[in-house]
Amino acid sequence: MTASSRPHDVVLFGATGFTGRLVADYLAHGAPTLRWAIAGRNRDKLARVKADLVKDHPALAELTVLIADAADPAALAAVAKDARVVCTTVGPYAVHGRELAAACAEQGTDYCDLTGEVNFIRDSIDRNHARAGQTGARIVHCCGFDSIPSDLGVHLLAEHFKKQGQKLKKASLFVGPMKGGISGGTVASMLAMLEEAGRDPRQRRLMGDPYALIPDRDKDRGPDRGDQMMAKFEPLVGAWTGPFVMAAINTRVVRRTNAISGYPYGKDFRYRESMVFGKGAKGAFGAGTFTAGLAAFVTLASTGPGRSILKPLLPAPGQGPSKAKRDAGFFRVRIVGESDGSGAGPLKAVARVEGKSDPGYGETAKMLGESALCLALDRDRLEPRHGVRTPASAMGNRLIERLRAAGMTFAIEN
Ligand SMILES: NC(=O)c1ccc[n+]([C@@H]2O[C@H](COP(=O)([O-])OP(=O)(O)OC[C@H]3O[C@@H](n4cnc5c(N)ncnc54)[C@H](OP(=O)(O)O)[C@@H]3O)[C@@H](O)[C@H]2O)c1
Q: Tell me, what's the pLDDT at 3?
């Protein structure tokens, strides 16, 4: 069966989870004519999700429900075979995601997810990139708050300089202010990654490698050395900054985009991310206390006894921020870019990426939902690039257009 003749445009796997439900609502509300299905391991829970959807959207009475466990390759192959796109919120991905990504690569089915787990993505590249290239599947990881604002924001800057005949050479992302919560699934994914890093020195080195996701880690390395770990005053924004937790995934995704797209940002491209805390003594205090708190959290969460102390204090799987908290959330990202100066001397520009609800849930449901819709419905407008891609290298300008139409800001300030 060709991808276009498959019965489902999109299958949402993990529709019973906290984020999966938000994505289901997003698709139900935003894509009334989509041919889609919900999938998961628990028939009763899926029936409840469907009943809730039908209350607000009676036309979904015919919505198909598919049963598959993340550990059952035959069931996953059947799900992938009947779909143009599988969109999954089943995490931790390093625990539950490997077989589904492989099934999609095998069946020539496009795929998008919300992982931020470098070890899982590296494994997916090594296992699935070549096969997905042969079958014509686009496997796109990191379609949430990590790493769409970073990846598409840098892409936007590069396109801006390209129109002026220049190449992006250097970019620094500053996140903040922002307000948002955390879900049990995200906590579980973070703790699983720290546990693996603690157990396996090879995985620990991989997670610390700024070029962890480029095709050949021994060759083609650029000039970046690592992520910001300390509080420091940043002249580019005139404010105090500290480490941004998601830099550990976002920077790797942006560097992969560059490497697999033929180096549109150049081989000497430099990229970093930090979190902004404000000016003066208050900013310095905020950056310093956040940096110390983060270091203490990572140290504690890297040990088994530490994780046992932390787990009861954090949300459990299935839990997450309330609707009121999600609606009160927001984020602002600025990416300060410099071009290579070919001909006329270096140009400077700032890309602005903003969202008006909780970044990890309200905005993430939008980003993942639009990624699935983009892969399913806009395939004729996407570059014919297959394999394990990044959001920018798979969907670039078309996804920016979709996210703007859905209320997010992607803009250039000179
Ligand atoms: N990138 C971002 O910005 C971002 C934002 C939000 C979340 N995330 C990631 O998204 C993932 C989900 O987070 P969440 O808070 O929504 O988690 P959650 O509420 O715990 O949901 C997990 C989902 O996975 C399903 N599941 C678990 N084991 C399964 C198995 N063996 N077979 C089939 N399904 C299985 C669960 O099904 P049951 O209901 O049957 O248990 C549930 O639907 C996490 O990895 C998190 O880090 C990323």
A: 63
